[in-house]
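Forwarding the complex inputs:
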Amino acid sequence: MSAVLMPLVAQALPLADFVKPKIEYNELAPLLVVFGAACVGVVAEAFLPRAYRHLVQVALAIVALLAAGVLTGILMHDKKSLVAAQGAISVDGPALFTWIILLALTLISVLLFAERSIDGGLSAFAGQAAAVPGSEAEREGTAAKVEHSEIFPLTLFAVGGMMLFASANDLLVLFVALEVFSLPLYLLCGLARRRRLISQEAAMKYFLLGAFASAFLLYGIALLYGYAGTMSLPGIADALATKTGGDAILLAGTGLIGVGLLFKVGAVPFHSWTPDVYQGAPTPITGFMAACTKIAAFIGLMRVFYVALGGTRWDWAPMMWVVAILTMVVGSIVAITQTDVKRMLAYSSIAHAGFLLTAFVGLAQSGSGVTSGITSTQAVLFYLVCYGFPTIGAFALVTLVRDAGGEATHLSRWAGLGKKSPLLAGIFAFFLLGFAGIPLTAGFTGKWAVFTAAWTGGAWPLVVVAVLCSLVAAFFYVRVIVLMFFSDLPADSPDVALPGWQTTTAVALGLAATVVLGLVPGPVLDLASRAGEFIR
Amino acid sequence: MSHELTWLLVAIPAVSAAILLIGGKATNGWGHLLGTAASLASFVCGVLLFFQMQGKSGEERSETVRLFEWFSVGSIKVDVTLLVDQLSILFVLLITGVGSLIHIYSIGYMSHDPRRRRFFGYLNLFIASMLLLVLAADYLLVFVGWEGVGLASYLLIGFWQHKHSAATAAKKAFVVNRVGDIGLSLAVMSMWALFGSSAFASVNAGAQGMSKTWATLLGLMLLLAACGKSAQVPLQSWLLDAMEGPTPVSALIHAATMVTAGVYLVVRSHAIYAVTESASTAVVIVGTVTALAGAIIGCAKDDIKKALAGSTMSQIGYMMLAAGLGPVGYVFAIFHLLTHGFFKANMFLGAGSVMHGMNDDVNMRHYGGLAKYMKVTFVTFAFGYLAILGIPPFAGFFSKDKIIEAAFADNIVIGLCALLGAGITAFYMTRVMLMTFFGEKRWEKDVHPHESPAVMTVPLMILAALSLGGGALYFAGHWIVDWLEPVVGHEEDHAPVSALVMTLITLAVVAVGIVIAVLLYRRDIPREAPVRVSPVTTFARRDLFGDALNEAVLMRPGQYLTRTLVWLDNRGVDGLVNGLAALFGGLSGRLRRFQTGFVRSYALSMVFGAAFVVVALLAVRLS
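Prediction (whole assembly, two chains):
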């Protein structure tokens, strides 16, 4: 018996033998630095005395982000482009470009998180998240100025997940990365110091709907695995090229993966979480999510659909056309009747997602011979830069307009703000003009890039819709400007808090990006164009 | 040398605007002087450039100045390049010349305004944007200037923001202009798709080989843009409301320069219109309709500025009409644009001078007999009046006469409409003259009409002189024809009757208009406007039901569609803005109901969405 079995076992063993995976530590260094710093942050939280935690955590986060940024910059300079970690992660031009933007925007967000001078020496985050809102414990905590410095490691985990998400070359890694960046965000959403109930509600909603969307994504991944027999994106592309039959599984899988990714992008009809969560979350977190989550999700979406599913483009493009149109139309139109500035910005971000989708659907690719100019990937990368910086800046300004109950986000409270603080209202107006796409702002050059890509990719009807939607969008942006400058200041108008250097820096960077990218977009466009295409 | 002059032309007012707007209160004391000096410096640059061009032969006069590369991606390359040619230099001289006069005038006109420094900052911003618009050698760059002047116009219309009507008018102008801007942005996109570039040179070169359909589409997109900026039917409604801005703004932006940008755009795109007859015809029709509509509106307005605004619409209609005629008319469109810039700025500033002496009252029914009290204003205004009527030897005679002649050569109906327009113009301008400067005085006791200070009257005198002498550009050996021909081309028209007969007929029609006005307004004019008036008057008073039409076409269906009327802006923006607002607001209100706040309904919407996505994918494959 055993004599019969022995050869079998001997044959089977080498298959099960553990092979040491090849990890390209150099190329993955930025990811490792961010995740490593996050782990160190968690440990520090446990061992450091309370008095030092805030300072150490902020310093750690900033140093880690800067270090990762430098490492990414070196990789970009060397024009690294390879598939690392046994085919799990692509470190290519678009991924590196995304990493850089994510790191820069997160750095600005971390500054906003660390701001303590706006609300009387307290940060925007709950002192004791576990204390019941309105309870004695909460009051005591506030009086003692306790706070959760865990938000910094959580942020590092989130941004690490986002970086991984944007460079995942394998559906399983993609899913893991999605969860790694989503879970910290769910938590961070519920941590507002003021209006805690609405903040907790937002976190709950985000979590439930996010889990729901993850299930769709996971099911789609399973179906695609069933079709292709592999999780790797290039493997799926190969299967598409060679395999016949099984189309129903393929298409259903494509659709469900699309749902999961479009949810994170905030595209209609998977956008319903956006306004509620953006409104409820602490404003610095909203800015972080609006900028960074959108960037990571968009690049992930493009990578999956271009690299793995590029072969079935003609199957998914019509569906994406409809989603793009719906997103632009719903985003721009519903924004009109919003009465809360954070909700308005949420719908504005939905409309921006729609504009981005036009370039995505237009699919102008350098290899396809469709275009000689800007490709979709480059246009999207550039637009994300143009959109990310002003978005964080705008949300940073929202934190400054306050009354006794915290931030005064109702639009009626912003009436006549131009008379109270011409500087704040002027900068906010400038951001709005940028979002509306007025020339000589980043919004214009960004829109120009994505619309050109869409147009050359043949999606000109989408561009027409997009231009019409920008018109509608301009209407509600201008409405806020009119409200701020041409309305009378009510007697009980909210105060404009004096920002600390952190918030000032965030606003100034947003402003600088809006101006510079509008006037001389050349260098950044050039950088985006050198990012090239996704590798397979 | 010309390289530096060209960029300085735009840079000086831009830098000055930045100093005035960023400098804040520190610049209050000398802000108006800096603004005026910047405009004058620009004018000097323009004059120097002009004389440099004089020294060269026709073909060599046009010069492109490449400043820097804006951006480049792959083969797409956008340079910031300025083009100084015979066409743009005329605009430069008009913008900076008339602009400087209006800056000087504003020193006096705005002397009591606490925000005068900001006003001059906006004016400089306008001058810089407008110069960029006319000097750009690329449609994309034109678009930048186009939006810049739109922004400046918006800021200046709403300058007296404490006036509710001013804020509303500013917003209306902004939104209506954005409708026109769609045309320009689509045109630029199409150019990129068709020619791979939006530079004038590439577009002109590519236009000859393009298909007729695309040429027509492009022509119509550009016409839409021109309609928005130049207040042509059907996008005319904002201009009358725009008179809420300070009077120098009305003179500079809403009479002499910005509103003529549409004409510039059409003339500049002559290569495209050469390919498509349909689009050219559309331009002619829009121009003719606006020429008549503006004139009719001008007849019924008691507000002196609104009467002049109707007249501006009408005169730009004439320019559009001429521009639509092609090479026969381009030169005269530009010529009329220049003379109109002189005499209309003159009359607007004259109106401002009258208002200055009448406690800012704009109602002509409260004027009367002012000729005695404001002699300089009266005489200079009369020069503008004679010029717009086309009485020889005033400037308008030469420019308008040629347009009517060319119109007759093209089509008898168009010609008759143009002729009729000239008659109506004579009528309403005579009405303005009589109601303001003649007859009994009708003002209140506490009003003490007086002549304005020299800082205001000297610009008036200069503009009056130009209204008289501007015609020299043509009658001195057809100078302007030879000047512009290398850029826009020129053909002689073939009128059915000789030029002299044409002139006599026109003058006769003008005389009839004057006589009717004198007969009607010789008698006493009531201080209050009569309520019981003929339907025609009501029609004209209500801007030919322009706002009502907007309401009927856009607002009512909006209400019907939405049932729930969501008035977005309780501050009462009327007409088009409210129509669109109600339409989208209602739609928005409806869509908003999906945002219930319940996770279960959100999840349900995602399920539906997912079902849609999968079904759509399968349907595409199976179909």
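Residues 164-195 of chain B form the longest helix (32 residues).
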